[in-house]
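Weekly puzzle thread! Below is a chain. First person to post its structure in token form gets bragging rights.
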Amino acid sequence: MSEPSEKRYSRHLPLEHWGQEGQNKLARAKVLVIGAGGLSSPALLYLAGAGVGHLTLVDPDRIEVSNLSRQILYTTADAGRFKVEVAKERIEALNPECRVEPMIRALDEALAKELFPEFHLILDGSDRMDCKATINSVAHACSKPWIYASASGWEGRIMSLDSRREDSGCMRCLHPLLKDGQIGTCENQGVVGPVVGTFGSLQALEAIRILLGVSTAGSRLLSIDGKTFTTLEHRLKKNPGCPICGSKPTAVDSDEEVLSLSVGDYQKTRERYILVDLRPETEREAHPLPAGFSATVWGAPGTKEPIPQFPDGKIPLLLCRRGMMAYRVQAELASSGVSAVVLKGGMEAWSREEQS
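Winning reply:
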């Protein structure tokens, strides 16, 4: 490496599992980043700073002032410009040795199939479930590792997946039907900027670990609540019936399956369901169920409590604070052959409904 590069990466070279050989690996690495927003802002800076040689950025959006609280690549003066163009300028200013290719396009299946085979790793910085579904299915078909992350409200989560591992599930195992609206977005739930930045930084760390061979993608979901600093780690089980990675893949979504239910619809058809409260005791005491409603309390996931025995003919309706944990439990139950439905928006949505 040239003299400037030796100085630039001097803090990496003494590191175990890194050194000069690892630095050379990163220089040869090609990473595809989908989305150039809040998650990708710190991820891109750290990947470029680490010496990743090639970054391709795919995002169709222009910068808006509302982005700036969390998308730290940009400034007020950048409003109205395309994100990927500004990102290229900032990244190359940070590290001229990093080649950046901006693409002002939205990711669709055709573009994913064209791009994914060229890259060592795909990093998901998108904020739409349909985009994550495309990344999941094409990455699985191309045998490319990818790093999922999302953040809304005070919470974030991250997981890396790699279809080359026989035991690795996929995103569809976690969310049996990936659709917009399953998980809250920044627009409808708000988001804490440092939470987004934390998970973007974790994506960069996980990408470096995978590219250096320190770690392999392993289907382990890490969630952090930024309000309480509590963490939850969940090992994603491969679902044999998954349409993407299961024993009989179909790669076709089924919109006929009911996976979530609004508070209003539950109240109209409550006799069909058995409410299952997944919240910890402190939350149940602080925000009890409305008068006239009762629930089976279950401490999953993250505990050793067995799956409750649900009454015959009753559909389990999963309730948590905002709905996010409930979708993870839904996937866990699906892998055990139990079909459950999630109460959309969780107890927070129910409370808003009661107050309106």
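Puzzle host: Confirmed. Bonus trivia for everyone else. The longest strand covers residues 146-152.
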